[in-house]
Amino acid sequence: MEKVYIETYGCQMNFADSEVVGSILREAGYTLCTDLQEADFVLVNTCAIRDNAEQRVRHRVRELRALQNRCHKLRIGILGCMAERLQSRLMEEEENVSFVCGPDTYRRLPQLLAQVRQGQRAAEVELSTTETYADIEPVRLASNGISAYISIMRGCQNYCAYCVVPYTRGRERSRDPETIVREAQTLFDKGYREVTLLGQNVNSYSWQTQDGACDFPELMRRVALIDPALRVRFATSHPKDLSDKLLEVMAAHPNICRCIHLPVQSGSDRMLKLMNRKYTVEWYLGRVDAIRRYLPDCSITTDVIAGFSTETLDDHRATLDLFRRVRYDYAYMFKYSLREGTYAWRHLADDIPDDEKTRRLNEIIALQGEIALENNRLEVGREYEVLVEGESHRSKERLFGRNSQNKVLVFDREPASGISPAVPGTYRRVKVTSCTAATLLGELVQ
Ligand code: SAH
Ligand code: SF4
Ligand code: F3S
Q1: Per-residue model confidence (pLDDT) at position 18
Q2: Which 3 state secondary structure label does DSSP give 283?
Q3: Largest CA distance in the chain
Q4: Cα(435)–Cα(268) distance, rounded to whole angstroms?
Q5: Among protein residues, the one whose CA lies closest to atom 7 of ligand 3
Q6: Ligand 2 atom at shortest distance from the alpha carbon of 159
Q7: Ligand 2 centroid to 255 CA: how many Å?
Q8: 44 CB less than 6 Å from ligand 3?
Q9: Which ligand is nearest to the CA of 169?
Q10: What is the pTM of this model?
Q11: Does the CB atom of residue 308 touch ligand 1 within 6 A?
Q12: Per-residue pLDDT tens for 170-220?
């Protein structure tokens, strides 16, 4: 039996896809291995969102060449968004790559690997309007047995001016809700306690059946009803489509986690228009108010881009102002990276010098660091229900888990006398005693 090693870069969708890939290959008779030294094939599932994501993969592919020189059997395949973007160009540029396979053609992997074994090189990069891998039960790679991703839709057609995803992932399509609910139920029966429903814009999830339509709020309701002990999360919400109906469903089901990722990208209306985000700052703040109204204890996180085309210091200051107003619990902050093929690549200049992009980014990072610390300080003294996940990365004596707001809480493995020790995969109450900008420290309470 030949062995396959899968390595994943990029977003949660890519991690979910790697689990589909693992399932397809296992079904075809391959063994999945966790030791690269043993592998016959290494599959690198890649991200194309920013240039530095691609450079990381290029670097890794060259690193793997050294391994190939020592062990001639090892063959490399590139999956995911970079495979889709560059297609066979990638094999020309990286001579040690045997095949590329885009996100909608993973069912063809067994044939591809067979071809490669016969000494051929091949590219499968067709995008589909229907593929959702709905019938495939993903293998849970590197899973903690507690939380899992479930892909509920694929693709994106919002065409934000800077973004490569519509070109690497194709048209938006939703997956049959029956298969989603079944997958979540199976996970729960196996002891999982948290599922995250994934899509590039989950609020536009939509499925038609004979009995009517199933939209995203309805899907959430159905998954939440599986069991009150199953936590349900989702990502990502496009602000233009975040509906009150979803917030109502969340409010009615306490096991839907109090955390909404609402990528803003910029605090300037001029930038938002140029980015084709289809909302204004006022609209965005209205959505934030609605979240706080329906779900007063909900955390809000975001994505932001510094230094998009023609961004002035005023536009940048507007982003800082927005951060001060919303007071995000967490933010993913990026420097604008021009992507080939996007609207911005065709029509807009990448005219902010790199060191100025860095300066603006660092300003946002510093501000967000202060806000996160101030937010966390307010948590000291509060008590939360935490889903215990495992050993803290820093210390064997400590465990960690998350609260509904998705904040990490770290606490002693050996609690004070009279309090039972915590077991991963169970819920425990933890009282916050101190904090950093990234973590809450606490103690188990009964
Ligand atoms: N579908 C999600 C985001 C997917 S990409 C959404 O619409 O919110 C994740 C984040 O990467 C984006 O939110 C954006 O902040 C960032 N990003 C996307 N393209 C980028 C680019 N060309 N340069 C820098 N950051 C980018
Ligand atoms: Fe990219 Fe915009 Fe689609 Fe998100 S919504 S994946 S940022 S095009
Ligand atoms: Fe990257 Fe593709 Fe996800 S470009 S962010 S892996 S959808």
Answers
A1: 97
A2: helix
A3: 66
A4: 32
A5: 165
A6: 8
A7: 28
A8: no
A9: 3
A10: 0.96
A11: no
A12: 999 999 999 999 999 999 999 999 999 999 999 999 999 887 899 999 999
- Cα–ligand 3 centroid distance for 95 (angstroms): 24
Query: From the CB of 49, is ligand 3 less than 6 Å away?
Result: yes
Q: Residue 17 — pLDDT band, cuts 50, 70, 90?
A: very high
Which neighbouring-strand residues pair with 260?
300
**How many other C-beta atoms lie within 10 A of the C-beta of residue 97?**
22
Exposure string for 360-395, b = 16+ CB within 10 A, e = fewer = bbebbeebbeebbeebbeebeeeebebbbbeebeee
Residue nearest ligand 1's atom 12 by CA: 303
Ligand 1 atom, smallest distance to 162 CA: 22
- Which ligand 3 atom is at minimum distance from the Cα of 169? 7
**N- to C-terminal Cα separation, the chain:** 50
- Say what the pLDDT of residue 327 is: 98
Other beta carbons less than 10 A from residue 85's beta carbon = 22
Evaluate if residue 418 carries a pLDDT over 90. Answer: no
Residues with CB under 6 A from ligand 2: 156, 158-160, 163, 165-166, 200-201, 238
Question: Does an H or E element contain 257, and which?
Answer: none
How do 3-8 and 31-32 pair as beta strands? parallel
Strand partners, 235: 198
Backbone angles phi, psi at 113, to 5 degrees: -65, -35
Structure-derived torsion over alpha carbons of residues 26, 179, 407, 369, reported in degrees to the nearest 10: 80
If you take atom 9 of ligand 1, which residue's CA is the nearest one?
303
DSSP 278: -
Please indicate whether residue 49, judged by its CB atom, sits closer than 6 Å to ligand 1.
yes
Which tens digit of pLDDT belongs to each residue from 230-285? 999 999 999 999 999 999 999 999 999 999 999 999 999 999 999 999 999 999 99
DSSP letter for each residue of 162-210: T--HHHHH-S-EEPPHHHHHHHHHHHHHTT--EEEEE-TTGGG-EEEET
444 pLDDT exceeds 90?
yes
338-355 pLDDT tens trace: 999 999 999 999 999 999
Mutate to test the pocket of ligand 3, among 18, 47, 84 (most ligand atoms within 8 A of CB): 47
Residue with tokens 């008590």: 383
Q: Does the structure show a pLDDT above 80 at 72?
A: no
Residue nearest atom 1 in ligand 2 by C-alpha distance: 163
pLDDT tens by residue, 117-161: 999 999 999 999 999 999 999 999 878 999 999 999 999 999 999
- What is the overall mean pLDDT for the chain? 96
How far, in Å, from the CA of 265 to the mean position of ligand 2?
10
Mean pLDDT of 321-331: 98
